[in-house]
Each structure stands twice: as structure tokens, then as C-alpha cells.
Specification:
The chain is mostly helical. It is built from 13 helices and three strands. The chain is globular, with a radius of gyration of 24 Å. The relative contact order is 0.12.
């Protein structure tokens, strides 16, 4: 209906200015119609209070810097430490790469907008954020599932671990995660790209997300709602349930292990389950009910794009003795090499 109103208003102005419609003027009419399309979106952000925005600017800048540097340190440590040349740490290194990218797709823009008066984003940049958000979310979900599978094989089938979790299998799991992310975006994003935007352009969030952006279209978006729930919502819910079932099976299996073994496995599983709950809870809330008007949505968006990557860093390093030991050795080697030069 809104789109028809836009077309009607433009055609009415065109006919008034020319006196009568001419067949040869359709190109001019189409040009005017194209100029009426939205070229940029306005991001509302978290708050309108300047003092709060400056505090959030400093906070998010520190969190972003720690996230990037910390996850880079994990990747370098895994790559340079022979003792960490195992499937679990290979998957963890890939997870760190995804976390860096996930934290970077919107956070720098959001940090800059906190100190800008005009918080806008170009149409193409907005849909680039949509592409990266949904692709990286899907990749991270499947990497978490792969890490759960790795722990399942290590604990429930230890004698077959090296055979099942070979280098080829690890690479295959990572490649499948990225291919699934691309497929996920390819099935969902075209519906949003082809939506007509000719009116409202205010996105009540810190970045562009499909449920909020599609609400601004000048057409009925009921089908897009169904696509979001069927794609993003069900994917999040399915991966979450698979992970819960996997860890439940692992917990039942380790009851037969020794006390020392149970303590080490429980520590690892606690870290994994914590990450799963913190990552999936906001995703399920947002995408299973994608067109809810809850103001809490934007805070959940902040949580799983800014807070979760640094929580992954803290949980997988501070609770992991092998990783902390490897980092200390790497740091000592770096300091000694600097002294020698």
C-alpha cells in the first residue's frame, strides 16, 4: 500500500508539471521514482544521552581492542605451538577468526556513530552488514557444533579419536561451516535485497539486521517473516538442541570415568556449555520472534556481536591451562628474542 502511495504521488506531480502524461516521458518518471528510493538508513543506537554515549564509546572501544588482540593471540598460539596441534585447538583457532570478524562487521561503525550527530549508513553498507552477520552467525553455530562433536568423540570413543578426527575431517568440518554460512545467506538475503524501500529509513538498532530492516519495506513482509523464522530461527534452535543433546550424552558417559578424569572433562564441558548458552540465547530470542517490538532486542544484539566474542576469549583461555601455558611460553620466547637483538 505504501509503495502504491509513493507511485501515485510521484505520478500526480509528474502529470501536474507536464499538463498531460506522455508516453515518451516514462523514462523521466522512472528516474523520479528511483530517486525516491531509500539511499541510506538512520541507526538509532542504544541511547540518546550524550554522556552515556561517550561512556559506551570508551567501553566498547576497549572491549573491541581486547577482542581482536586476544583472539589474534589465540590464533598465533595455536599455529606456533606444536602441543596445540590437535583437532580441538584447530577448531578453536577457527572460532577465534570468526569471532574477530563477527566483532568487526559492525562494531567499528557503531563506535564511530556513538560520537557522531548523524548516525547513518549507506544502503549498500547496510546490506553488507546483513550478509556478514547472518553468514558469520551460521559459521559460528556450526563451529560450536563441530567442537561438541570433537568432545563427543574424544570422550565417548577415545580409541577411535585419532581415526575419526583426522586432519581431513577437521578441514572438512570448517569448510562445511563456511559453505553452510554462504548457503544460509543465499537462501535468505535475496528476499531482503528485492524489497522496495521508499519511505521510513530509521532502524531501531546499532546495526542493520534483517527483521528490523525488512519492517521498513513499502510492502507486506509476511513472507519475509516466515523465511526468517524458517531459516535463522529454526537453524538457531536446531543447533542449540543438537548441542544440548550432545553434551547430555557426554555427561552421562563421563560418569563412568575416574574422579580426576571427570574433573578435567567437567571443566572443559562447562566452558563449552557456557559459550553455547551465551551465544544461542539472544539469537533464538531475536530470530524465532523476529518482528517483536521488544526494546531489549538491541541490547541482545550488542551482547552477541560485541560481548560474546570477548566472552569466548575469556572462557577458552582463562579456563584452559594448556592454552595459558602455551601463551606464557610464547611470550617468554618473544621477550628472549628481543633481548638477544
Amino acid at each position: 500500500m505504501k509503495k502504491l502511495c509513493c507511485v501515485h504521488d510521484l505520478s500526480h506531480l509528474f502529470f501536474l508539471s507536464t499538463g498531460h502524461p506522455r508516453a515518451g516521458s516514462m523514462a523521466e518518471f522512472s528516474e523520479q521514482l528511483n530517486q525516491s528510493q531509500v539511499s541510506e538508513f538512520i541507526l538509532v543506537g542504544l541511547t540518546s544521552f550524550k554522556d552515556a554515549e561517550f561512556i559506551l564509546f570508551a567501553l566498547f572501544l576497549v572491549i573491541y581492542a581486547v577482542t581482536v588482540l586476544g583472539n589474534l593471540l589465540i590464533m598465533v598460539t595455536v599455529f606456533l605451538t606444536p602441543n596445540l596441534n590437535t583437532p580441538m585447538y584447530f577448531l578453536l583457532g577457527n572460532l577465534s577468526f570468526v569471532d574477530i570478524t563477527l566483532a568487526s562487521f559492525a562494531t567499528p561503525k557503531m563506535i564511530v556513530n556513538l560520537v557522531k550527530h548523524k548516525k547513518t549508513i549507506f544502503f549498500a553498507s547496510c546490506f553488507t552488514q546483513l550478509f556478514l552477520l547472518h553468514m558469520l552467525d551460521d559459521v559460528e553455530m556450526l563451529l560450536l557444533v563441530s567442537m561438541a562433536y570433537d568432545r563427543y568423540v574424544a570422550i565417548c570413543k577415545p580409541l577411535c579419536y585419532t581415526t575419526i578426527m583426522s586432519n581431513k575431517m577437521c578441514v572438512l568440518l570448517v569448510v562445511m561451516s563456511w559453505c553452510s554460512g554462504l548457503l544460509h545467506v543465499g537462501l535468505q538475503l535475496p528476499f531482503a535485497v528485492n524489497l522496495p524501500f521508499c519511505g521510513p529509513n530509521v532502524v531501531d538498532s546499532i546495526f542493520c539486521d534483517l527483521p528490523l530492516v525488512s519492517k521498513l519495506a513499502c510492502t507486506d513482509t509476511y513472507f519475509v517473516q516466515i523465511v526468517i523464522v524458517a531459516n535463522s530461527g529454526m537453524l538457531s534452535m536446531s543447533c542449540f538442541l543438537i548441542l544440548l543433546i550432545s553434551y547430555s550424552v557426554i555427561l552421562m558417559t563421563i560418569r563412568r570415568c575416574s574422579t580426576m578424569g571427570q574433573s578435567k572433562v567437567y571443566s572443559t564441558l562447562t566452558a563449552h556449555v557456557t559459550v553455547v548458552i551465551l551465544f544461542f540465547s539472544p539469537c533464538i530470542f531475536i530470530y524465532v520472534w523476529p518482528f517483536s517490538n521488544h526494546s531489549v532486542d538491541k541490547f541482545l544484539a550488542v551482547f552477541y556481536t560485541i560481548i560474546t566474542p570477548i566472552l569466548n576469549l575469556l572462557i577458552y583461555t582463562l579456563r584452559n591451562k594448556e592454552m595459558k601455558t602455551a601463551m606464557r611460553k610464547l611470550w617468554r620466547a618473544f621477550v628472549n628474542s628481543r633481548k638477544d637483538t
